[in-house]
Design brief:
The chain has about 260 residues and is an all-alpha fold. About 60% of the residues lie in helices and about 0% in strands. Strand 1 and strand 2 form a beta hairpin. Helix 4 packs across helix 5.
Length: about 260
C-alpha cells in the first residue's frame, strides 16, 4: 500500500496554476471534454496523496485510487466558481468522502439502515460545510446543521467506520513491522495472552448455557462437581456427564476453527 506514484505507472502532469485551473473548470463546466480530462490528469497526485490516508484497510491501492478518481470527477462536475474557494479545497472532501462511502458500504460489520442513512447525511453535510468554511467542520456544527444531538452524530460516525485489523501495520522501517496487536495489552495482566482469552470466550459462547456455566465454574473458579451440582440442582453424576459433553464440544469447535 505504500508504493509511490511512479510505481503505479501513472502519467506525470504539471501542477496547474490557480488561473489556469479556473479557466479549465469553466470550460469543463461548459462541456469541454479535453479540459475535463486535463483537470483529472493534473490532479492525480492529489488523489494519490489522499488515498494514502486509507492504507492497511484491506484494499488494493489501485482500487482505492480509482474510487478517489471518481470523487475527483464529481468535484470537477459540481464545482461552482461562486464558491470563492480554491478547487483543491473543494475537491479534497469530495475525494475523501467518496473513498469513505466505499469503505462504509463494503463494511463487513452490519449496521442498521437508519444509522447508515444518518451517517450518509452527516458525510454530505460535512462535505458541504467543508466547502463553505474552507476547513473541516466540528461535530457541533454538523449536529446543528442536521438538527441532531452531538451524541447522535458521533454514534452514527463511529458506526460507519470500517473495522481495523489487529494485524494492521503501524510502523515499519528497516526491521520487522510493528502491528496494532503489538500495542495492545491488558492493564490487569500486562503482556498476558489476552488474545487467547478472547478466543476461549468466543468458543465458550457457542456452548449451551448450562454446559458453559459448568466449564466456567470448574476451570475458571475451581469449583468441585458437588458444588456445581448444588448450584444447578443436579446430581454430581449429571454434572460429570455434562462436563464431558462440553469438553468434547469444545475440542470439536477448536478443531473446526483451526481447519
Amino acid at each position: 500500500m505504500s508504493r509511490r506514484l511512479v510505481e503505479m505507472n501513472l502519467p506525470r502532469f504539471p501542477l496547474l496554476k490557480d488561473q489556469e485551473m479556473m479557466e479549465l473548470l469553466q470550460k469543463a463546466g461548459a462541456g469541454d471534454v479535453y479540459a475535463r480530462d486535463r483537470l483529472v490528469n493534473c490532479n492525480l497526485k492529489l488523489v494519490f496523496n489522499l488515498v494514502k490516508r486509507f492504507q492497511n484497510r484491506g484494499y488494493e491501492l489501485e482500487d482505492l485510487f480509482q474510487i478517489g478518481c471518481i470523487g475527483l470527477m464529481k468535484a470537477i462536475d459540481k464545482f461552482d466558481p461562486s464558491y470563492k474557494v480554491k478547487f483543491s479545497t473543494y475537491a479534497v472532501p469530495m475525494i475523501v468522502g467518496e473513498i469513505r462511502r466505499f469503505l462504509r458500504d463494503d463494511n463487513p460489520v452490519k449496521v442498521s439502515r437508519s444509522l447508515k442513512e444518518t451517517a450518509y447525511k452527516i458525510q454530505q453535510v460535512r462535505d458541504m460545510l467543508t466547502a463553505r468554511l474552507g476547513r473541516e467542520p466540528s461535530v457541533g456544527e454538523v449536529a446543528t446543521e442536521l438538527g441532531l444531538s452531538r451524541e447522535e452524530v458521533v454514534s452514527a460516525m463511529e458506526a460507519a467506520q470500517a473495522p481495523t485489523s489487529i494485524y494492521e501495520t503501524l510502523h515499519q522501517e528497516d526491521g520487522d513491522p510493528i502491528y496494532l496487536l503489538d500495542q495492545l495489552k491488558s492493564e490487569e495482566d500486562g503482556d498476558a495472552p489476552w488474545l487467547e482469552r478472547i478466543s476461549v470466550n468466543e468458543l465458550l459462547s457457542r456452548l449451551p448455557e448450562r454446559e458453559r456455566l459448568i466449564i466456567m465454574w470448574r476451570f475458571f473458579e475451581d469449583k468441585t462437581q458437588s458444588e456445581i451440582a448444588g448450584k444447578l440442582g443436579l446430581s454430581q453424576v449429571q454434572v460429570s456427564r455434562l462436563e464431558r459433553q462440553a469438553l468434547k464440544k469444545l475440542k470439536e469447535l477448536m478443531g473446526n476453527s483451526s481447519a
